[in-house]
Amino acid sequence: MVRLIVPFSLLALATPASAQRNTAGCTAATAHRLIVTVRGLRAGGGGVRVQLYDAAGFLEKGRWLARVEASAEGKRTIEVCVPVPRPGTYGIAVRHDANANGKSDGTDGGGFSRDPKLSLLRLKPAFAQVAVPVAAGTSRVAVTMNYRHGLSVGPER
Where does the record locate the signal sequence feature (predicted)? Predict the structure, then answer.
């Protein structure tokens, strides 16, 4: 199990493009990697946590296979490189601590690979809804963030 936790400040890599690139989760020695494009971040700061799961540990506390934290730095889209232990089928969960208070609260957002529809009554999809194949080498996936809007949950408006 890869447990990679790096402070937000060490992961920010400046780029002139609209997408903030974050490759600190991967190194030249990372044989298999998943580039996660996190889009639709609520404007402002805060931190983004990207976690990689297999079916057996999906969304269970401490059962992620890899975890990378990055700064949103006011960007609406960022890219995060997540090391993958081996080719296979995985799920990605993303959390945006929009106000950078280190707690889960009503301003925070979340999203999953394959962008399953979420609601206040169903914030945790099944693994089958988020499962994506990851090949040897470099794979890519996009995640659209969802935030609370009154009594509904969805992308930023």
Answer: 1-19
Ranges of each domain in the chain: 8-154
In terms of Cα–Cα distance, which of 20, 64, 12 is closest to 41?
20
d(CA 103, CA 101): 5
Is the predicted pLDDT of residue 14 greater than 60, yes or no? no
Nearest residue to 58 (alpha-carbon basis) of 92, 94, 83, 95? 92
Q: Is the pTM of this model over 0.90?
A: no
